[in-house]
């Protein structure tokens, strides 16, 4: 008896490997996958502007990285005793404008340099709903899209659903800029399975439909674009509230793990998948908490995995094993 519908996932032309650099940008689901990539020792830069949900903010952020835009105090506004940017997540806010500007410009510079040499850009779009700023909002032009509301008053914003044509236009322009800036890039699009129920159930589905139609049109138009069906895996394959957190909005650990395993199988080579198993074994060994660390058995356990980490560092010099080696060595000295 089948309790969920599984479907085949086509692989991209260029598979993900540890030798590559991956820039991830988009919704909070981006950070779920980014965390797993980082734990498995891929070279990842994740959300240099913080979490971004809509395609306008994603396109603007990528353009800033390409141009290596420098932000100034004049680009910020103050609210609730902190300084903020309408283009950045609150984690870039600061008690002083200098603090916020330093964090923003350093992150943009890092993204600019990373994107020059990146092999993959994974873009996860969350919602086609945007919140444009009204005449009551401070230090902005009316109609500009806010990437984050920073808990500003509700009358500072007006809600709008982007059309498919608007999404197509801005993403098309962004893709041309990306390929001109870095011709070797492959772009992986995903639609976030996070349900934006704050907008309403029907409104959320309208939003996802806009994004899906726009992205598939672009994937069919451009070479080196690939669609990974994270949304469909949760909504159509798992299709059960057991795979959501208590808020019934965010996929839970099991759903995220399922999507991760599908990503690994569809988008990584057999060699990379084998390497992931080796990495997992060493990571788990480094997390092991013995009842009695001074026993000969545990010391031998540590030495075995220290030797494995050293061997892996020689065999795969493009992967850093420094933390694990330092950990095993420090434990052996006790």
TrEMBL record:
It comes from Sediminibacterium sp. KACHI17. Residues 22-262 form the GSCFA domain. InterPro entries: GSCFA (IPR014982), SGNH_hydro_sf (IPR036514). Coiled coil: none annotated. Transmembrane segments: none annotated. Pfam families: GSCFA. This is GSCFA domain-containing protein. One of its GO terms (molecular function) is hydrolase activity, acting on ester bonds. SUPFAM superfamilies: SGNH hydrolase.
